[in-house]
Amino acid sequence: MRMVFGLVLVVGLALAGFAVYMAQGYIGQTQAKLAEAKAIAAKSGPLVEVYVVNKPLNYGDALTKEDVQKIYWPENALPDQIFTDEALLFPEGEKAPRFILRQMEKFEPLMAMKVTEPGEAAGLTGMLEKGQRAFTIKFDNTSGASRYLQPGNNVDIYWTGTSGEGNEVTQLIETSVAIIAVDRAAEDGTDTAAPKTMTVAASPEQVAKLAQGQATGKLSVSLVGNEDDTLVAVSETDNCKLLGNCTEAAAVVEAEKVCTITTTKGGVKEQTPIPCTN
Length: 278
Description:
Layout: H1 2-44, E1 47-53, E2 62-63, E3 68-74, H2 86-89, E4 98-99, E5 133-138, E6 154-162, E7 168-183, E8 197-202, H3 204-216, E9 218-224, E10 236-238, H4 239-243, E11 259-265, E12 268-274
Antiparallel strand pairs: 1-3, 2-4, 5-8, 6-7, 6-9, 7-8, 7-10, 11-12
């Protein structure tokens, strides 16, 4: 009986020791993960809940409560005009929805600049600053970088036409103009086709220049890189400069052909002009 009691005691002590060992291992792993989480939190800083869209949304789509959700975002990396309060995003008592002003992808943070005010229609007027006008440029399938243009991009605008001297000329007429809309709807409903038109925000003076350029020639665009504030000098080229075979045209005046007849009077020879026969 004593042997059985002793055996049970030994087994119990062994199990207790094993349990303590397992507990220590679990506690050690938990402490390691906690230390790792604290290290990550120290680097990223405090987290803030922000509103994001939970599905892709296109220009003109109505924004509803079902289209958004909250996720945690590092406080030190918050975009400007972010929404963190539902009362500001969907004001109480406001039945009219907000509308999307710029295409948004799933889990992209909602910002005030990308949606209209409640009840405000999604239109170009909401994207124009004071003193600006909207002007639409027509494209064909060969208009430079037109296939890659998106609202929010900036472009340089070139005019190609005939100069007063009759030469074909391409000239830079506007630099870093902001795009506010692109019509790239294809027949199959996709948005991969080259755009038919592009609308830019411009001053009245720029609009007059662009309208004249579109009426007298062809406008094409060149995409400007993000945050590129390089000052671009006015440039112009024509067929002569393009091909590199320009020669200064010296004013060559062909001398008129003069016909004379020689006569002798008093021993003196004289040259008398006469009409040329050939």
